[in-house]
User: Fold these one by one.
Assistant:
Number 1:
Amino acid sequence: MTPELAAFSDWTLALLPRLFLYPGGLWLLAALLLFRSASGGLPAVQPSRLLHDLARVNLLSAALAWTAIALLPFPGIPPLPYPVDRFVPLALLALSFLLDIKGGKASPLQGVVTAIVTLAVLIPSIESRTLFGTSAHPTIAVVASSLAVGIALVALLQAGEGQQSISGGVRWLSWLCLGLLPLWQFIAVEGAWLPSLTVVVALLLLCGLSRLLPDGGRAAVWAASSALFLALLGLLPALLASV
Amino acid sequence: MTSRAAAQPFLWTLCALNLLLAGLQLFVFAPLVGGGRSLDVSLWPGDLLFRADALNVAFGVAWTLTLALGLPVFAGPHNPVSMKQAGLFGLTSIGLLVMAYARQPLLFLLGWEVVGLSLWLLLQSVGWPGNLRRAAVAIHLPGLLLLLVIFIDPLGPFAPPQGGAAVAWSLLATLTMGAVVLVRCGYWFVTGWQQSFPSQALFCVCLDMLAAPFLLAKALVAAPWSDLGAWSLALMGAAALLGVLFASLTRSVDAALLVASSAVASALLGFGLAPLSPLAALGATAFLLVGALWLTMATLPYRGALFFAQGLLCAWLVSQGALDARYRMVAALLLPVVAFIAFRVADRPMGDNGTGLFGSVRVIPITCGLILLVGLVIFPQAAVEWVLRPVVSALAGGVGVPSTLQTNWGVGLLVRSQQENVLAALPATGIALALFLTCVLLYWLRGLARLITPTPAISRNTDNDTIALETHAE
């Protein structure tokens, strides 16, 4: 077997459990159900509603978001034989969003928040001067980046992203997991339980926060502005870091 | 005979000629310039006028191919290509080829002026209601600026130095080249913001814009920028990109202009940083080439997503290049800004009648463009090894060898530092496999859901070309 073919084969074997078990596949399905019930209430997880949304799913958009989450370097599963940097899942998620807005259906706020999340997730990469964005200890930039992602996700919930379609929900979860990524660089974790628990807590927290805010565009704009402010706050020390 | 039918022979003759030109360049020059070689040609002894290297051949082929594939896409049913316009498009091809293969700055300038002149005459022939006098000044002013600098601070030939290290371009020359690119593109962008162009003219305007940063690539063949020059060009590119971002917030700029200008701004950034990081040069070259490729798909419904998909490899290369060069702001800006511009491109108008399908004429160029796009997205290794790496190797005077970029033909691309640390990784082929598997599974699940849900009726909404699924509850 040629080295290229061997590399592709190794990649495929390592990818399958990630795609269909954890963090994609079954784990993702459970997280999606929890997210839908937390953001849209019990009617959002009724079988008829789920089937209806599944029948309308945008294949490529949902597949891109699913693939993005499966590629994330989560604890509890062996790393991929060929690494994936932080830029790649971000780009996949932005592409998934763009595929969902055929006909100009998305509000400008969703576009703005997507750009803010993309900027926020890139901040650790800017600080460490590699697209992997690895950091040995929590810095102001990394903490501000994660906070900005969290608040941007609240803005997205307010703007309606996530509840409208399955691909939107998977994308929201992928962004959440990307925002939590720095955590696994500072805490040594063995299994999948702690990351799962962290995702559940963060998900419930953000959905609860979104429910506490008044409905309507103004709260979403405020949340988006706060996320942008935090992202810029994190960007400044990242630009000045001495690495 | 209808005017549309009468226009067909000119359109197809033009396409065939440009296709032939692209094929000829590949057939004649590709074996000659392989392995980093080049060919200098003189029309009379002692005066070398033309040069064929990987850079020149890549852009010569790309531009003629874009003219061959993009013209049928932009030629709408209400403004068929007349004989005069066909002649002007032919003149554009000649001008672009002179630009591509020029060895001397004056010859390059001549080619550029020919392209500008044919564009101006085209605007006149299609009855563009804008100010033609102002357009003439804007087209030729950058050329005059460049000419002035050629006389004040003589620019050497666009060829690598013969032995020894290249002396960096003076700050005046660097700034002038950056300003010339910005003025030439900026005029079209600002004009297009105020007043839309007819489809054929819009195509030519975009091509003219995408050809402008080639001046910087040509200059990098001979010598690098100074540190201050690199910083200035990167600053100009960042400002231009932010300008395009703010312009995209309004709804009055054509999608094609947004794409062309964002590609130009990103290329300006990349070429500015090129002497500091070869990855940035790779990304900048890719931006210009995929910007031209996008023109063949400009009328498709998912054009925003297509632009973003094409730009991924370019943005990835420029971002890591900017991080290598310690220009972190560029890396922070590029992906979010390109994503937002792609979002705004998605629901933009396309010229005056660009959305009207031109029968089956567009099927062939759009299919060719899509095949190239899928190849670029799924297998960027080929684009890097067969096009981008030879092109950047041709910029020997100003850009180093991109040795940190490694290709794994089975999975994707990897960037390693000199200390062998992995800096960035893009396993595009591996991701394509994952995407295929998830798409298949979702397809089956969706089919199952449609079987189970009560009497789903799919109706096509012709206005916005979306499929709406209406489920009638029992």
Note: The first strand of chain B starts at residue 39 and ends at 44.
Number 2:
Amino acid sequence: MKFLFALFSAVLIAGSASAQELAPDVLIKNVTNEVLDIVRKDKDIQSGNTRKAIELVEAKVLPHFNFTRMTQLALARDWRQANAAQQKALTDEFRTLLVRTYSKALTEYKNQSIDFRPFSAKPGETDVRVRTEIKQSGAGKNIELDYFLEKSGTAWKVYDIEVGGISLVTNYRESFASEVRNNGIDGLVKSLQAKNKSGEAASVKK
Amino acid sequence: MFAFNEGLDSAIVKPVAKGYEAVLPSPIRTGVTNFFANIDDLFIGVNNLLQGKIPQAFNDFGRVAINSTIGLLGVLDVASEAGLEKHEEDFGQTFGRWGVGNGAYVVIPVFGPRTARDTVGLVLDVAADPVANHRPKRTRDVALVIRTISDRANLLPADKVVEEAALDKYSYMRDAYLQRRRNLIHDGNPPRDVEASADIEPLAPLASPAEAVSEPRASVSGAPILALQADSTVVTSQ
């Protein structure tokens, strides 16, 4: 009978290998459902344990995000001013900030259901938007939650998220630009580090 | 003015909203939200009419008719369950739809971030607001207070996320407000900002608003008005 289990595992592994070539809307749907299933069962995350939410996001969500691209978009033209080391530092710090923000949002999740809007992409397209909607309980307007994905190689990677039309990435553009203007690229790295440190301290306290 | 609002919020409004959330069970809070949302639907319908979106307007008036009756004066949102979707419209959006640009970005006492256009819209929103026009004044005041607390309580989760996210809260709120309004005016389908999707090399117009906000903290120290031609950064893609 053991061979059956082995066969089953082989199929599973094959399945996850081909997950790389998932269509972008299927990818978003799978990840969303998987993550929310976990959150629904996890009392710690529901009661505001950001640390645990961060672990979940790092394991399940991070692999599908392209943080270099996100940082590039948030920095706009200042990106080119930064040398390779600075670009790496910026990307690392921005990743930490976004992951914590996203994780915090997960701890606020209250069983709202997610609607996946119809998706169609032309063949050969490498830049798409997948639309979802968070249904509010009561007479709240639904909140649009859109993912922007780019195809790099065979895998689709998210490079921007819009919540109700507010981009989590480009919303930083003006504050990053003014920080760079006043204190240079290193100044921005420093203020991101400071922000992440205070966020870290706050989540430890909880 | 931003600092004033933040102070007012953290000293009074937010603690009261937290107490409200702690004391009342969620179905009751939802009922309160629904009750005021139903009243709002009337002028949401009027604004949809003014924007020429006739089917949406009928949807909104239908919501009021159903929720005010079967929905027990709006406490239950039966219309949403029947497939009549909730919309979000106001006079500021109507002006935007008519082609009026943002104008300067301002932070108004109590009401918070607005553009010049939305400030004019706000004046009309308040003038038309059935709750603010309700008499006797005593019931009106009670209703206004409850609505404010209920609205604020609904924002508590968003609050925590903003605290987590914002490097500089003032500019984070400003840019989020501007993006949100742009999205609302286009009913969720604004033309995609070209340099957001195409290239890191920004287009020429980006330089001007960036200059205009060279001192984002200025308003905290007292200057409430900040010129920001957000519309100039908007370039239609394709």
Note: Chain A has seven helices and five strands.
Number 3:
Amino acid sequence: MRLRVTHVTRYQYTDPVSLCHSLARLKPRDTERQRTLTAQVRVDPWPAVAREHIDFFGNRVNYFSIQQSHSSLEVTAQSEVEIRAPTWPDPVITPPWEEVVRALKHGRDTRLIDARLFTLASNQVPLSSEANSFAAPSFRPGRPILEAALDLMGRLHRDFEYDPAFTTITTPLDEVLAHRRGVCQDFAHVALAALRGRGLAARYVSGYLETRPPPGQAKLRGADASHAWFAVLIPGLGWVDLDPTNDQAAQEQYVTVAIGRDYQDVAPLRGVFYGGATHELTVAVDVDRVGSG
Amino acid sequence: MPPQTAALSGGPTRLVDDYRPVAGVYDEMRTADGEVRPHWQYLIEVLRALGPDGIEERWRDARRLIRDNGVTYNAYGDTEGMSRPWELDLLPLQIRSDEWATLERGLIQRAELLNLILSDLYGPRKLITAGLLPATLIDAYPGYLIPCHGVPATDDQPLVDYAVDLTRTPDGAWRVIGDRTQCPSGAGYALENRVVLSRVMPSLFRDSHVHRLAGFYRSVRRALTRLAARRTPPTRIVMMTPGPSHEAYFEHAYLANYLGYNLVQGADLSVRDGALWLRTLGRLERIDAVLRRVDDLWCDPLELREDSHLGVPGLTQAARAGNVTLANALGSGVLEHPGLMAFLPRLCQHLLGEDLLLPDIPTWWCGEQADMARVLDELETLVIKPAGNPPGRRCLFPGRMDPAERAALVARIQAEPDRFVAQEHIVPSTAPALIGRRIEPRPTVLRTFLVAEEQGYTVMPGGLSRVAFEQDTPMISSRLGGIGKDTWVLASEPERQESLLGTGDLLAPAVAQESEVSSRVADNLFWIGRYAERAEGLVRLLRITIFKLSERQGYAATDDLTSCVPSLLQALTHQSQAYPGFVGDGFEERLRDPMPEMLSLIADPERLGGLPQTLQALGQAAWSVRERLSVDTWRVINDIEEHLRALTRRPPRDFGPALDELDPLVTALVAFSALTHENMTHNEGWNFLEAGRRLERGLNTATLLRGTLSRIGREHEEHLLIEAVLGITDSLITYRRRYQAGTRVGALLDLVFQDETNPRSLAYQLVQLERVCRQMPRGEMAAGRSSIERLILRSLTGVRLVEIDRLIQPDRTGTKRVALRRMLGQLSDQLAAVSDALTAQYFRHEEQPHALLGRVGRGPQ
């Protein structure tokens, strides 16, 4: 399936900004199931410096700096990607989760070594006994890993309330766990803490979700905004993307933009500016199907 | 007296005989058999010859030098704050040349090894994929900065500047106990220790054939020049400091000065066009390399710590684009991971094909299961170093814990084994240290320094040794604490005298090259000028007022002779702006009994506008531009601060003792003025200092004249006031010579208002102010006079054109000089406007950078 994404971010400042440096992770990366056909990031006003590099995780990062005085900033990312639907095996035949933990710890395979990073606590996903006990019912001894991960996702979906008013990007994980509410970022972080607490490799995924409700069905949440979910590594199978906000494994309508240890690694746009006093942010995202469909 | 100490007072022979090394510990001076090692013999002889009193005298000399040079170090949690003087032991650590050569080889190998590891970790990470380094060892360490991955290092040399902490095991073998790689401090203190010691013990130093240090600092300059991003001269290199409140700020300023680099803070720098620039007055200067003293994480709020105000947004990008060289490269703190030591022998074989020459203390990383089991088994005998978040450098000693604490530690290790490292508990070797009047063995750690030159690493022939205060110290921390010690590597041949100056080194630009003045520096210099002058003016006014008040004693309070006092007191309030004082609410009461208010102005540190606050502000501004003030100037600043301390610690209760403090203070302030005038190059920076001084003096004079001459008093009173004003403005002698017939207001104004040759007159201040402002940098578009110059010229023209006789005409009531008062008021306003204009044009620092709002990804709306 082909999807076209348009993501417009606009900052309006109360005072003029004299200088601004920004990093954007808005161009979708390639994955095993995703090919990026076109991608561009336009910045208005015109940046004096614009450069792209690939970060540690393989994400595409656009750095730009605006050196003329400006009172608004608009960043428009447009891309077209082709995504293949995943084919997951029957969860029952995936290996017991403890076996995966052992493989991650002792395996000599490069992929496993590379994945070890994702078994570690990170700034926004610290080790959490609260997350560990939340995970416990899903991780009965010997349970196949995919079954356990799907179960965890389902419980997250059921037990946590979606509440954009409750959290900000700096709300600590334990607070999310204590109140059982948050947004997609928070749910992904909780899942990461739960999986990493077991010694499993799990990574944060930022991206988009196409919203095109099939007739008669409810509109999927996650529409018209950037979205986030998590992926767990199953040796031999690869990274399996799971979306606890909508309680489903990622299908064709999930566009992956960037991956990292947590939100901090993949924030779509971060920046530092001089002047400006206060500012307001508006975001508009459109995900459209291209061609048939 | 404890038997193991050698008493200086016990006669020459006992000096050494009473010195008993601790059993089972290597001692630098004596062998286990009690023999004095040969290379210590000469030092011992010299000490014997000096005798206890001689030694103490030298020690006092050293203390004085340290104080005069303002050498400070502020260890965290130190209650004395920033001004705790650096402690220096009189006895250097002495090391034989041949032994040093062996150590040197090991250090160079280690630096090369660490440099290769660093390059790999921020590049291909082959060491991890090949299984030579566990991924979790590195990736779980907060010092490994993933955003810095892929930033290329100039010449593959991310580790430019490197320090190692060393001690000896009982068999005398050197062991590394710590690596300092992100911004290693201590090289400045090492130099300062050397300067002090070689001055206090010149002949001992000369005859001991000590290896000189200057060559090492030349290497540092060469290395940075070579690595500077743009090779076409002139390359610009700066030293970046977190600022005056940093514990080692003294060293930053000292080293920057010695190396001839501009000392800058993050706010002085800016990233534009993908490169790094220094904001100087009215323009930007491209920077090619940064010797940084700001820790990795704080260097760039765009990619590293968002809340850092010490760094420069975009710095990582500038380095990524190859437009600036950072020494060391961002992220080099990963090498400080204590667990890395466990892997070095293997890595050395792999990367260099050699055995590790200089072994570490046996180290285990708990992330390896077998190692953890062993660590937990032998926990009591080990030192535990957490390598977690935040990167802690604190060591834990399980052997000293109670069982509950130990159990808690075991649980923590088991929960996060990746974050714990264990090391064998080694007792550092001891060296003789002067403790009181005795020489005693004290645990000693040597920090030495390396720098990357084209042909390889160069080691400083010496270093900074530190001894613990107490004999029973488990381990000297890697922080700079304890007592400093110079380190002498003894050459067999005497060495040529050298210094950084005049080496004729082609690679290095002349040290005397003037570094640009940043806006921040100009701002501080301007205020140094203002505060110094303000303090001097205040003290002068206070003194004269006290004299006049003292004359009153014995006369009736209403006596004509003393009626100038209220005017002086009111001038005091206006000048210090310490309202209400003798002007506002309740002034009558204070005029009747002025002493408490005056003493408060003199000694109350809480009093806004009072003398202590003015002096404190002067000290702070001076400290912020430490590197731009000469040693002599700094000594005067120290004197001034000592007077300040004396005033505030023992506030005078009467005028007599107050005068005793004020008199030397005036002398010190005058000395400060003279030094800044005579000993500073009259360059861009000096122009600002001078502008501040002239502006303040002009304001003071205008305020003084306005306060004293606006009201027309009786003849006696006028006479006394004129005399007082002449005293305050130091113009009495000229006045007497010029106007022999009596005292007149007109003559006074002629001299202290309109005379452009009198350095105390208002007109003189304006002339000087105009002159220095004309030399300040201006925008490219500017033609003719700048707005600042026009402001000054308006004042100056007014002063030149006015007819004194008309100016002092009484008003209709015959009690006031309205025209004079108005004009002085206008002049004060105009001078204040000049100050504002200077601030707006030159000192306006760019606003604080902010982070953009986050949460762009927020899920459904």
Note: Chain A has two domains: 2-83+267-289, 91-266.
